[in-house]
Amino acid sequence: MIPSLLGISIVLFSLLAMAPGDPFEELATNPAIPPEVRANLRAKFGLDDPVWMRYWHWLIAMMQGDWGFSFVSRMDVSTLILQRLPVTLVVIGASQILAIAVALPVGVLAATRPYSLFDQIANTFAFIGFSLPTFFTGLVLILIFSIQLDWLPFVYRADISATGWAFYWEHIKQSIMPVTVLGLFQGAALVRFVRSSVLDVIRLDYVTTARSKGIGERKVITKHVVRNALIPVVTLVALQMPIVFGGAVVTEQIFRVPGIGSLLISAMLANDTPVVMGVTFVSACLVVLFNLIADILYGWLDPRIAFR
Amino acid sequence: MNERELRGLIGKVKAGKLSRRGFVQRMMAVGIAAPISAQLLVASGVAMAQSPSTYKPTKRGGGGPLKVLWWQGPTLLNPHFAVGTKDQDGSRLFYEPLAAWDNDGNLQPKLAAVIPTKENGGIAADGKSVTWKLKQGVTWHDGKPFTADDAVFNWEYAKDPATAAVTIGSYQDVVVEKVDQYTIVVKFAKPTPFWADAFVGTRGMQIPKHLFADFIGAKSRDAPTNLKPVGTGPYMFKDFKPGDLVTGVINPNYHQANKPFFDSIEMKGGGDAVSAARAVLQTGEFDFAWNMQVEDEILSRLEKGGKGRVQVTPGGNIEHIQFNTTDPWTEVDGERSSIKTKHPTLSDPAVRKAIALIVDNKSIEQHIYGRTGPATRDFLNNPSRFRSKDNPVEFNVDKANEILDKAGWAKGADGIRAKDGKKLKFVYQTSINQPRQKTQAIVKQSAQKAGIDMELKSVTASVFFSSDVANPDTYTKFYCDLQMYTTTMSQPDPQVFMNQFTSWEVATKDNKWQGRNITRWRNEEYDKIFRASESELDPVKRTAMYIKMNDMAVQDLAVMGVVQRPTVSALASKLNANISGWDNNTSDLSDWFKDA
């Protein structure tokens, strides 16, 4: 885990250092600001040092828990990220729950009745779902639900002034579209996966044995089939986390959700290297973390997979 | 309009035969922007009038929340660190300068009791000092009084290079002294005709001494107040998430009676310009959206929803084409476009003239920019008193052909003109931005008809506008024949703006291409006039000088205007907001209100 994070950070840092652009670009094009100001700032933030030295400084600071200092906002990167992280986790979490809540029953049902009408409809929607990119479905939803029907707001606001039930209602209302976009994109791929995984298991001998013992169909499916079929699905959910984060970046930008995705985009546009490093690093950590969770889940789903 | 005519009109105003408004209108008619005409009057001894207030509410508050959308949200809230307009606009919710520029270029007092004039003794006769009387009874949001000590502190804070304030340019060359508790004097080393820089507008926002005194110089970044502003403005700070959200609540002790109208303000950031326009014009989720860089066609369509309107405010942005006077294709002492060279073909005035004739400004306005880009040939357009009348927009391919024929550029077998073996082939570069690429295409098309070959080049904006010394594609290096971009005149005085054609500002390898004269055009007479304008205290003469300078650069075709780029905002239909092209979008926030 540590070596992979280290490798990720080296690649990120050198890529960012090689990319064109300057965080104080706007100063350069503004005639009222003398060039010395920019030179001063560059020196102050150590931008004139060689790349390896800057990386070294960054790494040492990072190990001491110092995430660095945003060039653009002139505040600590950790504060910036902590402000944004909860929203992203809530949106991504909710969309994952939605994805699983849709994919599991639909996938299992489709697998138990393969090539039925239900299966075919489910398959069709699954294909449409994961073929359409999130930026497209997001815009379509905005056009329908915000502009035509005027039901839902398309600008996400973190500070809802209402209290009590109204507060939660407002939050749910503005979260519906981003969560749906992300969740259905995920869910569509999962449906296909759950279906094929269940199909693989349902033909195995032990399932026939269970049935012949006279155990009810419902119990066979939930206790015997699904539990075993879930192992590859858990892997997929964990492996898809990077894609979810990617989708979240785009979705957050469209709906103006103040999460780490939109922070990443604005930081990249402003060439704010420490923030870009911080956000990408947090995403990397989260992905590694989800892989770890997947490993632990294996053990629970299948006791034969033990930790040594 | 020459100097004598100007003086005649000013005399009439003084004698009471012509109203101020009439004067300004007449100046507008001849293309002199209101800010300039207003300053002409001031300098000639007519008191600067307060533009009549359009503010209607008769009590403070009661207007509900004001929701504004900046598609790039403010990332910091210390006005001395505020680089872009978004940061300045955000800071302006809480902080105020001594005086603000209104859209006519008049100074409006904010924290100043009166605007300094010659008559009230504010401006010294020798032009070497300005005395500001501060408004009394103004308090910071934490209840402490605002005094001359605060103003002097802002000067000390900004001028210290270790603070790394972006406002340093306005404060480092002046000396500020406290006269009494509510008076300061700003002293200049030499006679300074444009004195309204420090303490005014975007650079003039005042921060409180008692909260920043311990954080001057290298410690500036540690000040907790950087993120939790305490100012004198109409709204008090509530919450700030960089890039996302700034919120404020009404300041119950604001120093202007019955203001502000709204109970709270919410400035949301992020997203893109088109959806921001939608949120105001089509769904009405927000009351105001900033910087509508959206095609006019789309804006007009969204406006049909009837929930909002688009407001266009003229300012100092000019999309222009530069002609390289040096040779970009020959390397001399490690740099191309060196001033030791001359451009092989563009140095012929006939070629430059022909190129100017094939640029169809009117079509570019009509088909690309619409309301958001009025055609112009001038470089200096606003304030309108500085606008020359002598450079009409002209598009005429036949005439271009005629000129080139006369000058001996004959069409070859490939349809491209050549003379002495040198072909009229040019590389025309700009940044990647859809309207710019469309403009390039329009120019290329008519160039072909005149036997000129234009190779179009577009560079991604983050490279084009960077100051990366190692990159050959930056606009300051200008390693091509023609280039196009928008430059900004940020204050209603052209002095800083017009130094872009002085010989000592030429961008070279020696100054790491940080010089501001990108075209490398040099002219002794221009230099002389510019030097004179720096200390010319008679505003009428000074105005004439700037018009002359514009004409020299434009008529010799070092540069040609394409379109002006005014400030475009989207407003909810009931919202009344005065936007100034010479100050922050939120400079007049205390006076914003909604019709009942």
Assembly form of the protein: heterodimer
Number of helices of chain A: 13
SSE class of chain A: mainly alpha
Uncertain ranges of chain A? none
Which of globular, elongated, flat, extended, rod-shaped describes the shape of chain A? Answer: globular
Calculate the terminal CA-CA distance of chain A, rounded to whole Å: 17 Å
Strand content of chain B: 15-25%
Written as H for each helix and E for each strand, in order along the chain, the element string of chain A is HHHHHHHHHHHHH
Of all chain pairs, the largest interface belongs to: A-B, 51 and 62 residues
How many beta strands in the DSSP annotation of chain B? Answer: 22
Given the C-alpha coordinates, what overall shape of chain B results? Answer: globular
Q: Could you give the order of strands across the largest sheet of chain B? A: 7-8-9-1-10-20-11
Structural class of chain B: alpha+beta
How can the largest sheet of chain A be summarized? none
Number of strands of chain A: 0
For the largest beta-sheet of chain B, the strand count, sense and barrel status come to: 7 strands, mixed
Helix content of chain A: over 70%
Taking all Cα atoms into account, the compactness measure Rg of chain B is 25 Å
Proportion of beta-strand residues of chain A: under 5%
N- and C-termini, Cα separation of chain B: 44 Å
